[in-house]
Every structure is written in structure tokens, then in C-alpha cells.
Design a protein that fits this description.
It comes from Pandion haliaetus. By secondary structure, the protein is of the alpha+beta class. Among the domains are: 8-171, Glutaredoxin; 346-439, no CATH class; 647-728. The chain is 48% helix and 10% strand. It is built from 27 helices and 21 strands.
Length: 730
């Protein structure tokens, strides 16, 4: 069928914007054409910001933006702009700052009204189409605002100017240039205390409900443990992190059939999730589960890391090497369905499972089928296992979200089975359910590829490859880094780009005007390149990381108040240059960059990078001392800064067995303040040119030899992995 309406979004590349290309609303993308039209026609701007896996964004589109009458009101009175917040986090942050300041809450879809010169004066999030008992409807709001503009234009303009001044003032007080970084010991102790107080002893995690996977908290706890291994607080920190990871892996937030993790849990038990899957969660969790394996030696954590990487390799990978952004939560239950439902792709009715797994199980209690065993182990109930409280829209009625409720031993004994046989039975059940699920309509895939999130995923593959000693993961990370270099980097200017897209014939496409990289793109890519160097020991990645670090300094550093701005200067359509101060679903860029700068200094000898790291910590000093739980990644970095990174230098032939053994030793130990360097003896190579002291380090008796150096002064040489391990785990 030919669509009735088509607007300018049809020329965009973002899957989210393309979803709105046939709305009766005359949408414009964010850009000069829309701004000029607003000025020329003296019209207000209606700005709508969302992203493709946002449930309420879909709802508002269905109810309001597809409504012809509402579309007419919008087109007559406003210039309407649609933004994908994942493409333009800078635009999103500016107006979200306004919405949070004026309405006390924020979220998406974000709806904001702006003057023709882009100053916000009214806003909110989701609006229902018509007036209800408690809420004003979208139609009413549109008409009221249009009326105000007609009647009181001057008052409205004056008010918008005052609002902007207040926002400018607010955005500047967050980060204050203190003299020196806060005391690391106190920051770490306070952060640990705050996490410990909010910890859920039964189910893990750091809130009642909803529960988020927050890898930043877990990484903080690992570092805290590494610095207090023998103290009771250290033991508790490790226990909190490992228990949380275990409960998450058993929960419904973990996809037991299709692998990977959903966004977050709506309940305290990690049971019923919001079903979208985001690349940034997979990347961070793969790294965190790999670290848990490295620390505990427990294969369980290693297998979860592999499960995440299997999902990403299969479902979020572009053939050119990049990673896609997300899979949606909503999908059609069957090919014949007219309406999408949340979680439809992932949930099961009990009789479906019985029908797929009817085989009698040999050696089990009389009459036991594979279905009985599977359903018992994964908490499946005849009437569905989702409480109506957690399912306000009745979308999951009669359905089951799989969750591991008991240990393999318990399930085995329940059916009189040998415990050793359970694994194979469950795997067979998973295989059949997976095949059945493949027949269902898939949720929408957001095939946009973002530099920042690709960086987080490369770190996941590289760290898992090193910790689990799996070369194929390191190769996958290198393939993705080569993709970034080819498609999201401009060698002429030395700058990163934000995004690229999967085109018609699976080619990789770029928008007409490419979006330049933001601070987070640089920071997560630089982190990824350091992780990839440590896993692969290819010096080319280091060289590129240091070039990008210089570029990041040039584009984003704030010499006046220290730290980095999120976006670069010189875009007249951005009213504010902001700095984030919250480690949330993703760590904030200024937090990660502290460790990046310290690593960069170790690989280059540029001590001004160490000074910059200290200045960032100083800028956030007050927040780090009062509520470090808001910045656990930066709190973690205060310890790395304070304890000085150790350069672990292995002198040896990269191909030699003795060198490989030493490297395996380094990779098997969790030490938050080590940087790995392979001195291969090539004095013309990049590292020897950067770090003259390497030339003085020798192989003892011709064997691969390790030195542990700090501030470029080195320990005595050791040639056995055991001795090296002793030096890395004080």
C-alpha cells in the first residue's frame, strides 16, 4: 500500500527517524532548514526526542503523531522537529536539563516547545492525546501554547530568555575547580558505604525495584576488593558484586533461550524485565562477567560472558564488523497479529513448552517428561508466572518469563535424576525452544552503529578474550576496531564520527552531513583501543588511541573550570555546553577519561596527562566526597590515580612460548592499577620511541622476563609466572 503521507524524515538514516517518515506530521530533522523556516514564518518549534527501543515513544506516536487531526494542529502552528537522542545526545541533554529543572522529572519521549531561536519555554514527556481526569491531553497543550504565542509573544520571549540564563547558571555550578583531587581513601570508603547501605542482601542489586544492572557499581566493588583483599569490607565488596551477578544471570533479565541481557528488571527479583536489549549493556556486562571469572575462577561467570558475546556476534553484528545499537521490546506475537506486545518474542505459555518437550526422561521418576524438568527448573507455571501487579497492561497474561528458581542439584533430586545429567537435558530444552522462537516475528532491530557503544562492545570482547584466553574474541574486537577506523573516523581531520548506518544492500552508509563525534565517542573508543592493545599487543591500536586523546583534548577540554565538555564549541544551535556528573547505565565520559589519561601517560611518558586526570577529579571533588554513589566509576578512578599505575613490562619474543606464558599470567590476575606493555626488542617500534626506558630492560638468561615499573622506575627482573603473580597480587 502506498503511504498517505511522507515527510522529510524519509531522507534520514536513523531507523528511529525513518519510523516517523509517514506520520501526517510535517516532521523536520534537527537542522538549519527547520530553524530557518521557524524564523521566516515566525513560528514556535515543537521538538520531540526519543529513540527506537522506547516503549512510550511508540505509544505517543500511535496515539498522537499518527492522528490526522492532531497532525493538522501541529503543522498549522509549529515547525515540528524529531530527534533520535542516540544520534544527538547533545541536543537531548540541553533540553532534558530544561525539562528536569521545570517539571522535576524527565524521560522519553521528551516533548519541548521552543522559540524560533531555540530557547525552551514549555515541556514535558509523554502526553496522552486527549484530556483525562489527571492529565492535560496533547491536543489541548498544543492549542493553548499556540494561543499564548498569538496573544503574549513578548512575555513568552522574555520568559524564555530568563529560563536560559537560569539554565546557564545551573549548568556551571555543578563542576567547581577545586585546588586538588579529593582524598581517595575517603572517597572509596564513602562510596563503598553508600553501596553497602543500598544493597539488597537477598537478591543482589542496589535498589528494591526497578532493578538495573549498573556495571559501574560492580566494577567499583571489584576495585575496592582488590585494594582491601584481607579486610572484612573487601570480602563483603566482592560478595556483593558476585552475588548480584549470579542473581542477574539466573533472573528473567537474562535471556535463557536467546542469550544476552534485557535492559532492566521491573521487580526486586530480576524476574520480569523491560525486554529491549541495548548494545551498551552487553559490552559492559561481558567485561564485568569476565572480571568476575578472573577474580573468582568460577566457570559460571565465564560462561555468562560467553553467552553475551554469542548473542552479540549472532544478532547485533554487521557483516562489515560494526555492532548494531539495540533490539526492541515490542513485537508481534504471531505473523498474523495486528498489534505488537511487549516481550512477545521472549515469553512462553506452559502448554507451548509441554508440546515442544514431550519426551519421557529415562532414569527419572515414572512419567517425567523433558517439559516437566525444564518447567520446574525455570519456574514455569500453568497459569503464567508474571504477577498481574507487574503487568498493568495485561500483555503477559498466562505467559512465563523463564527464571532459574533452584540449583541444578535440587531440580535433579526432585525428579530422581543424577545431578550430572541435568545440564544436557536443559541444553536440549533450550535448543528446541530457541528453534521454536526463531519462527516468531522478530522485534525491530536498530541497525544504527554508534562509535561510543561500539567502543564499549570492543572492550567487552577484548577483556573477555584476555581473561578467558579466547583468541576469537580478541580477533572480533580487532575486526570492530578496524571497522571504526574505516567507517567512523576521518583520517584527513583526525576526528571521530558519531554514527553510521546499515544501508539498502547491507552496505555501510553515512548521512549526507555526518554527525561529528562527541566526548563519549572519543572516551569509549580510546578505552577500547587500550583494552584491545592489552589483549592483542598490536601497537597500532596504541598509536591511534594516543592520537585520539590529543584530539579529545583539543576539542573538549575546559581550561577554565577543568574537565571535558560533552560536546565541542562552535555549534550555534546548541544553547549550553554541558558536563555530565552521573555514572548511570553507561559511565559518564569524564569518569572513564581519568583512567584513560593515566593509561595514556604510561604508554607515552606525557606527564601532563596525569595532571589533567588530577584536575578532573579536583573539578568533581565535592560530589565525590558527598555522594560518590552517583559517580562510582570516577570514585574507582580516584584509587587508580592515588595508587599510581604499574607498568607491567614483559620483555620477550611475542611468538615465544615463555612470553605467552608470562602474558597468560598477567591476563589471569585482576589488578585494577596495572598497564601491560610487551617489549619485543624492536627498538624502531612505536613503544620504544615513546618510552626510552624500555631500551634498558633486558631478557634475563635469554628468557622472557617481567619488570613491574612505576613512574618509570622498575623492579628487579623475574622470569617465572609464579614470581610475577606474587608481584601483581600484593
Amino acid at each position: 500500500s502506498v503511504p498517505r503521507h511522507t515527510n522529510r524524515l524519509i531522507n534520514e538514516k536513523s531507523p528511529y527517524l525513518l519510523q516517523h517518515a509517514h506520520n501526517p506530521v510535517d516532521w523536520y530533522p534537527w537542522g538549519q532548514e527547520a530553524f530557518d523556516k521557524a524564523k521566516k514564518e515566525n513560528k514556535l518549534i515543537f521538538l520531540s526526542v526519543g529513540y527506537s527501543t522506547c516503549h512510550w515513544c511508540h505509544v505517543m506516536e500511535e496515539e498522537s503523531f499518527k492522528n490526522k487531526e492532531i497532525g493538522e494542529i501541529m503543522n498549522k502552528n509549529f515547525v515540528c522537529i524529531k530527534v533520535d537522542r542516540e544520534e544527538r545526545p547533545d541536543v537531548d541533554k540541553v533540553y532534558m536539563t530544561f525539562v528536569q529543572a521545570t517539571s522535576g522529572g524527565g524521560g522519553w519521549p521528551m516533548s519541548v516547545w521552543l522559540t524560533p531561536d531555540l530557547k525552551p519555554f514549555a515541556g514535558g514527556t509523554y502526553f496522552p492525546p486527549e484530556d483525562g481526569v489527571h492529565r492535560v491531553g496533547f491536543r489541548t497543550v498544543l492549542l493553548r501554547i499556540a494561543e499564548q504565542w498569538k496573544e503574549n509573544k513578548d512575555a513568552l520571549l522574555e520568559n524564555s530568555q530568563k529560563i536560559l540564563e537560569a539554565l546557564l547558571y545551573r549548568s556551571e555550578i555543578h563542576v567547581q575547580g577545586q585546588e586538588s583531587p579529593p582524598p581517595s581513601k575517603e572517597v572509596m570508603a564513602t562510596c563503598f558505604q553508600q553501596l553497602s547501605n543500598s544493597y539488597d542482601e537477598d537478591y543482589g542489586g542496589f535498589s528494591e525495584s526497578p532493578k538495573f544492572p549498573t556495571p559501574v557499581n560492580l566494577n567499583f566493588l571489584f576495585t575496592y576488593w582488590a585494594l582491601h583483599r584481607t579486610a572484612p569490607e573487601g570480602a563483603r565488596a566482592l560478595q556483593m558484586a558476585l552475588h548480584t551477578l549470579k542473581m542477574m544471570a539466573h533472573g528473567g533479565i537474562h535471556d535463557h533461550i536467546g542469550q544476552g541481557f534485557h535492559r532492566y528488571s521491573t521487580d526486586q527479583h530480576w524476574h520480569v524485565p523491560h525486554f529491549e536489549k541495548m548494545l551498551y549493556d552487553q559490552g559492559q556486562l561481558a567485561a564485568t562477567y569476565s572480571r568476575a571469572f578472573q577474580i573468582s575462577g568460577d566457570e559460571f561467570f565465564g560462561s555468562v560472558a560467553q553467552d553475551i558475546l554469542l548473542y552479540v556476534s549472532r544478532d547485533l553484528s554487521d557483516q562489515a564488523g560494526g555492532f548494531y545499537s539495540a533490539e526492541d521490546a515490542d513485537s508481534y506475537p504471531t505473523t498474523a497479529s495486528g498489534k505488537k506486545r511487549e516481550g512477545a518474542f521472549c515469553v512462553w505459555a506452559a502448554d507451548e513448552i509441554q508440546a515442544l518437550l514431550p519426551d519421557p526422561v529415562e532414569g527419572a521418576t515414572e512419567g517425567t517428561t523433558l517439559g516437566d524438568v525444564f518447567m520446574h527448573h525455570y519456574g514455569v507455571k500453568e497459569t503464567g508466572n508474571v504477577s498481574p501487579m507487574k503487568d498493568p497492561h495485561q500483555e503477559l497474561k498466562g505467559k512465563n518469563v523463564l527464571i532459574v528458581r533452584c540449583s541444578p542439584e535440587l531440580t535433579a533430586s526432585r525428579f530422581g535424576l543424577e545431578p550430572g545429567r541435568l545440564g544436557a537435558l536443559l541444553r536440549e530444552g533450550q535448543r528446541r525452544l530457541s528453534a521454536a522462537r526463531a519462527q516468531r516475528p522478530r522485534p525491530h532491530l536498530d541497525t544504527k552503529m554508534l562509535a561510543a557503544w561500539n567502543g564499549l562492545m570492543i572492550s567487552g570482547f577484548a577483556q573477555a578474550g584476555a581473561a578467558l584466553a579466547k583468541q576469537e574474541y580478541v580477533s572480533r574486537a580487532a575486526q570492530a576496531a578496524a571497522f571504526l577506523r574505516r567507517h567512523l573516523f576521518d583520517p584527513a581531520s583526525g576526528r571521530l564520527l558519531r554514527s553510521c548506518y546499515r544501508g539498502k544492500d547491507n552496505t555501510v552508509e553515512q548521512s549526507t552531513v555526518p554527525i561529528q563525534g562527541f566526548l563519549e565517542d572519543y572516551v569509549f573508543v580510546i578505552q577500547a583501543l587500550f583494552d584491545l592493545y592489552e589483549a592483542s599487543l598490536e601497537q597500532g591500536w596504541l598509536e591511534w588511541a594516543l592520537q585520539l586523546q590529543h584530539m579529545q583534548d583539543k576539542l573538549f577540554w575546559d581550561p577554565k573550570d577543568f574537565a571535558y565538555f560533552s560536546s565541542e564549541a562552535g555549534d550555534p544551535s546548541l544553547l549550553l555546553r554541558l558536563k555530565d556528573d552521573q555514572d548511570g547505565a553507561e559511565p559518564t565520559a569524564n569518569s572513564v577519561t581519568v583512567t584513560n589519561l593515566l593509561r595514556a601517560a604510561c604508554y607515552s611518558g606525557h606527564t601532563e596527562w596525569v595532571e589533567k586526570a588530577g584536575r578532573i577529579l579536583a573539578a568533581f571533588s565535592e560530589r565525590l566526597q558527598k555522594i560518590p554513589i552517583a559517580l562510582p566509576e570516577m570514585a574507582r578512578a580516584t584509587a587508580v590515580f592515588h595508587h599510581t599505575l604499574k607498568q607491567v613490562v614483559i620483555c620477550g619474543d611475542p611468538q615465544g612460548e615463555d612470553t605467552k606464558e608470562m602474558l597468560r599470567c598477567v591476563h589471569s590476575v585482576f589488578s585494577p592499577n596495572k598497564v601491560l606493555i610487551l617489549a619485543d626488542g624492536d627498538s624502531a617500534g612505536f613503544l620504544y620511541r615513546q618510552l626510552p626506558f624500555l631500551a634498558s630492560l633486558e631478557r634475563k638468561d635469554g628468557k622472557a622476563t617481567a619488570y613491574v615499573c612505576s613512574n618509570f622506575a622498575c623492579s628487579l627482573p623475574v622470569t617465572s609466572p609464579e614470581e610475577l603473580r606474587g608481584m601483581l597480587c600484593p
